[in-house]
Design goal:
By secondary structure, this protein is of the alpha+beta class. It contains seven helices and six strands, in the order ααβαββαβαβαβα.
C-alpha cells in the first residue's frame, strides 16, 4: 500500500477509536497515542522496507505510542483531588495537562516575595500536603520550574528563577521526598503569562510551576 494511504488509514482508524463514547479520558489518550505511533511507524517502515516494512512499522509504532509518556491513573486522580482540597482558597492552580501530568501553578503572593527565593510561610502548608501525596506515590517524577517578571536583567532573573525552584525542592526533601525524583529549571522572564507592563501582570509572572508525572513504565513494572 502506498505510504500516504497507509498514513491516512492509520490515523483514521486510531482517531476513530479514540472517539468511542464509552472510553475514559485515559483510554482515549492512550488510543490517540497509539494512533500517532501507528502512523509514524507505518511511514518509517514504508520508507525502509516497502509494504511489509510499513505493516511492521505500524505495529511497533502503535505499541510505542500507547506506552510512551505519562499516564493518568487512579493514583494521579486521587493526588489531584487531594491537592485541590489542600490549596482551596489559596490561589494555587491545580490542573491536568494535555500529556497527563499534574500541574500546580503557584502565584507570587503564595510562593515568594519580590527578588527573593526563600519560601513564604503561606506556601509551606501547600508544600506540606504536596510532600505527603508525593511520598504516597513514590513512582511519580517531579519537575519544578521557576519564573520571574521582566523587572531586572537576565543576569538577575535567570539565577533567581532557578533558586526559587531549588528552594522548593529543598523544602520537599526536608519532608521526605527524595531529591533524586525532582528536577528543577528556571526560565527567568522568558515565559510570561501576563502583561509585564502592570504590577498585576508582573505579579502573575512571578510564579513557580510544579509538574508531577507517572511514567507509563512505572505502571507496567507494578
Amino acid at each position: 500500500m502506498h505510504k500516504s494511504k497507509l498514513l491516512v488509514l492509520a490515523l483514521t482508524v486510531s482517531l476513530g477509536a479514540a472517539g468511542c463514547a464509552n472510553m475514559t479520558d485515559t483510554q482515549r489518550r492512550t488510543a490517540t497515542g497509539a494512533g500517532i505511533g501507528t502512523a509514524a511507524g507505518a511511514v518509517l517502515g514504508a520508507a525502509v522496507g516497502g509494504g511489509s516494512g510499513a505493516r511492521t512499522g505500524a505495529v511497533i509504532g502503535a505499541a510505542g505510542g500507547a506506552l510512551g509518556g505519562y499516564i493518568w491513573s487512579n493514583r494521579m486522580e486521587e493526588q489531584k483531588r487531594a491537592m485541590e482540597q489542600a490549596t482551596q482558597g489559596t490561589g494555587v492552580g491545580v490542573t491536568q495537562t494535555a500529556d497527563n501530568q499534574l500541574k500546580l501553578e503557584v502565584p507570587s503572593d503564595v510562593s515568594f516575595d519580590v527578588g527573593r527565593a526563600d519560601i513564604k510561610p503561606n506556601f509551606q502548608p501547600v508544600l506540606d500536603h504536596f510532600a505527603q501525596t508525593l511520598n504516597s506515590n513514590p513512582t511519580t517524577t517531579v519537575r519544578i520550574v521557576g519564573h520571574t517578571d521582566s523587572t531586572g536583567s537576565d543576569a538577575i532573573n535567570d539565577p533567581l528563577s532557578v533558586n526559587r525552584a531549588a528552594s522548593t525542592r529543598q523544602y520537599l526533601a526536608a519532608r521526605g521526598v527524595s531529591p533524586e525524583r525532582v528536577t528543577i529549571d528556571g526560565r527567568g522572564s522568558r515565559e510570561p503569562i501576563a502583561d509585564n507592563q502592570s504590577e498585576q501582570g508582573r505579579a502573575k509572572n512571578r510564579r513557580v510551576e510544579i509538574y508531577v508525572g507517572e511514567p507509563q513504565q512505572a505502571q507496567l513494572s507494578r
